[in-house]
Specification:
This protein is an all-beta fold and 124 residues long. It is built from no helices and eleven strands.
């Protein structure tokens, strides 16, 4: 059973920092692309940052230069460091694990898992 457990959310003033962490279990962590998504009320869920199994990173335009993502394959964790936070960063942040595999029967299957989310609130 795959579990993704986020921690580190909370209330912070604009300009401040928060560090989110996601602990994964029940999967071969090192093979998954790990990501952070967020969803504000009335908005669609959007990509914040992702890191591939080889360590390549990708960021949403709104957070480039302010957020960083890292992973520790030995500990099965992925972290999101958020600096220079803005009120518009307020959202529920979700950890995501995603992988595409080709089975022995040459079938392509994708596996997509989500955490329960953690609230980040940035006050002005």
């Amino acid at each position: 059973q795959v579990q993704l457990t986020e921690s580190g959310g909370g209330l912070v003033q604009a300009g401040g920092s928060l560090r989110l962490s996601c602990a994964a279990s029940g999967l071969t962590f090192s093979t998954y692309r790990m990501g952070w998504f967020r969803q504000a009320p009335g908005n669609e869920r959007e990509l914040v940052a992702a890191i591939t199994r080889s360590g390549n990173t990708h960021f949403g335009d709104d957070v480039k230069g302010r957020f960083t993502i890292s992973r520790d394959n030995a500990k099965n964790t992925v972290a999101l460091q958020m600096n220079s936070l803005k009120p518009e960063d307020t959202a529920v942040y979700y950890c995501n694990a995603y992988v595409v595999v080709v089975t022995s029967a040459d079938e392509v299957k994708d596996f997509d898992y989500w955490g329960q989310g953690t609230q980040v609130t940035v006050s002005s």
